[in-house]
Amino acid sequence: MDSKPNIQDVARLADVSIATVSRVINNQGGVRKQTEERILKAIEELGYIRNAAARTMKSRETKTIGVIVPDIKNPFFPLVMAGIEQKAREKDYFTILSSTNESPIVEEKIIKNFIERGVDGVIITTANENGGHLKLLKEQNIPVVAVDRIIKSFDVDTVLVDNVKGAYQAVQHLILQGHRNIAIICGPQNTTPGFERYIGYKKALEDYNIPLDESLVVQGDFGEQSGYLATKRLRDLRQRPTAIFSSNNLMTIGCMKALEELNWKLGEEVSFIGFDDVDIATFLNPKLTVVARPMNTVGEIAFMFLYERIQFKGALPKRQYSLPPELIVRQSCRLWEK
Amino acid sequence: MDSKPNIQDVARLADVSIATVSRVINNQGGVRKQTEERILKAIEELGYIRNAAARTMKSRETKTIGVIVPDIKNPFFPLVMAGIEQKAREKDYFTILSSTNESPIVEEKIIKNFIERGVDGVIITTANENGGHLKLLKEQNIPVVAVDRIIKSFDVDTVLVDNVKGAYQAVQHLILQGHRNIAIICGPQNTTPGFERYIGYKKALEDYNIPLDESLVVQGDFGEQSGYLATKRLRDLRQRPTAIFSSNNLMTIGCMKALEELNWKLGEEVSFIGFDDVDIATFLNPKLTVVARPMNTVGEIAFMFLYERIQFKGALPKRQYSLPPELIVRQSCRLWEK
DNA sequence: CCCCTAATTGAAAACGTTTAGATTTTTGTC
DNA sequence: GACAAAAATCTAAACGTTTTCAATTAGGGG
Hints:
Two copies of one chain form a homodimer. By secondary structure, chain A is an alpha/beta fold. The first copy, chain A, folds into three domains: 7-50, 434 Repressor (Amino-terminal Domain) (Orthogonal Bundle); 62-162 and 295-324, Response regulator (Rossmann fold); 163-293, Response regulator (Rossmann fold, 3-Layer(aba) Sandwich), CATH 3.40.50.2300. Chain A contains twelve helices and twelve strands. Chain A has helices at 7-14, 18-25, 33-46, 52-59, 76-90, 104-116, 135-140, 163-176, 192-207, 224-235, 249-262, 295-311; strands at 64-69, 94-99, 121-124, 144-147, 157-161, 182-186, 217-219, 243-246, 271-275, 289-292, 320-323, 326-328. In chain A, the strands form two sheets. In chain A, strands 2-1-3-4-5-11 form a six-stranded parallel beta sheet, with helices on both faces. A six-stranded mixed beta sheet of chain A has the order 7-6-8-9-10-12, with helices on both faces. In chain A, strand 8, helix 11 and strand 9 form a beta-alpha-beta unit. In chain A, helix 1 (7-14) crosses helix 2 (18-25), helix 5 packs across helix 12 (295-311) and helix 8 (163-176) packs parallel to helix 9 (192-207). The N and C termini of chain A lie far apart (83 Å). The interface between A and B is large, with 47 and 47 residues. Chain A binds a DNA duplex through residues 6-8, 16-20, 22-23, 25-26, 30-32, 35, 50-51, 53-60.
């Protein structure tokens, strides 16, 4: 009653050996029905729960995967996490989540702890794309899947959202509505998302034979303030854009603030598309058209990649999956006729 | 090289017994400096990482706490989680997070799994306040802290935000600005938050000798649509309110939509305070005054409660902590002079 | 009723730690 | 340099499983 019952206690009560109990617990078959029932009853009676630590020690499996994110407070990650968890649950895996606060040092500590705990695999959005601090994982030969950010120094499966395509779709949508003067508020060009979204923008213009107007390319830093300033700058141009594409959520918010302040009518005087859906999108009037990322799917695929790696220990080739973002058309873009 | 080095390998290389290695690993002292250095070198050389499973088996401690939330996609919980994680990290604890999707059945499975894994304690926002499905935790004598939702059928430490006080502060703020006709959009009265926030509203009116006007009390269901409808209803009153208090975030959003539609000028014709901060709050014009809950602190306190329970196995009395919500004054309320 | 095969069951050895309790080494004192 | 006390180290026994291989039992054909 006081201390937890173990497999011994069950065996004793059911009058069998622990081996047989183990077989029943793990559904391995080869136990007479009558015996099995007796054991099941004993388990029930004692309230026996198997001990994962002991089991892990033998089987070298924990059925646990570690998930590392840079910032749990960023809504992107809980949504990805939900996808991971859903698939993991299906396969009887459990997840351990830790957040690094964008610190590679914390990240390394977490990894060490994960290894101590014997995670079967790791899904990570690293705080440092160079990945030198991830060498422990490589050494231990633990399957890893990178999400949203690549890891340069070592080959792992990667799940990304296709930034180029997303930006392309957005700009294409504007072009097809007749816009020619389309501005972009860029993210930092030394980050993958910032750079790639700009590439998508350029590509769309090229494909439709619209010359790139440098004055419509405004640099931002993914922060709200920069979106605000960029928008003001655009307003001041001789040749104002008729449409704006913002490279991320926070800059979208800054942009909206500027628009209102300048009384630059959204959806009428200027069309708008933002990368990443934002909470305010459906609240604004008109509602914002955005390129949304399928967070849940990202998580699902990340888990499935990891799962496959865990199953086939063999060296699969490195894979990369680029998910297409989705253009959600609301009301912030209108046809533009000269 | 192929399989993980264990304490044996370290001992062999350092030419000591495993007991001594163990002592060094755990900083227990009583090892000559010279020996310690030799062992440390061996550990380094082999890349030895200790095995949590084996260690758990002996010490019956995992330094792990389980966190159960009903919906990881609801931003409230990641924020609480961040607080938990922060404190946990300080104390060298790790967290396992699982989301139940509001299903008591999933919740029970998670609990069983947590127990198998030997978590030292559990922090939970249960999917079912009755708590009958939590009996395993009680049986196993595992410390539990309830967050945001109470557990009726069994006595555990509880961390709540003081709903009564929060609502009281909001309404008081309105009263002190001269408002007398203050409406409330209620949440469901059979839920703790819904009921308590209404109580706070009533109490404030009483304390300032303002008679309760039933027509200003509108029932909602915490959903956006109900906030929208409630607002329309209020507008139709002969005696319109000069201020509105909304009981939660989603209803606040509905309310805002209605206000705009009705062209009922926020902050001028009608003052407003909402329970719970919302992303759009600072985006609207005027910015919304709200009662905000200190999510991070909730998490921190929850962990500290749990930690104390884990330390003193003894039976502490059941504790309950009500955190004061914070009134964040922005611009949606104005002085009202008759 | 006996024997052979197949189906069950059991005994015992890991897995990698921690930790008493025993043993050895060091240190200090005379 | 001998002796006791203190410090350092070691031996060995758990912890609760899984799993191999051996032993036992059941089932069936003759």
